[in-house]
Design goal:
The chain has helices spanning 55-69, 85-102, and strands at residues 2-9, 20-23, 30-36, 42-49, 74-80. By secondary structure, it is an alpha+beta fold. A five-stranded mixed sheet has the order 1-4-5-3-2, covered by helices on one side. Strand 4 (42-49), helix 1 and strand 5 (74-80) form a beta-alpha-beta unit. Helix 1 (55-69) packs parallel to helix 2 (85-102). The protein is globular.
Length: 104
């Protein structure tokens, strides 16, 4: 299991009243949990992955995600079982869509 951590300064702090969970950990898939981290001003992305040695790819996916959404005051946890970068991006976007749907 490889653990990766990325932190980005964000400009959009969504109002999160309850954590948002999308996906399921399983062969070739992943789950994404988004939680509030009030006052941090950052988007902290924590990744646990079964696929070792893909740090540069994870970093590129994380940077692309952050450039598109600019989240702040959130902690995102990803539990991965070998998902492709495209699936990772889709799950992250799905979590943001759920987050927006849960925001009053």
């Amino acid at each position: 299991m490889e653990k990766l951590h990325y932190t980005f300064a964000g400009s959009h702090a969504p109002s999160i009243t309850t954590p948002v969970l999308v996906g399921v950990v399983g062969s070739g898939n992943l789950e994404v949990l988004v939680e509030a981290a009030p006052g941090s001003g950052q988007c902290a992305l924590h990744i646990d992955t079964s696929a070792r040695g893909f740090g540069p790819i994870w970093q590129a996916v994380a940077q692309d995600f952050h450039q598109r959404h600019q989240l702040a005051d959130v902690r995102i946890s990803v539990n991965d079982m070998g998902a492709t970068p495209a699936v990772v991006s889709l799950r992250l976007d799905q979590a943001v869509a759920e987050l927006k749907g849960a925001t009053p």
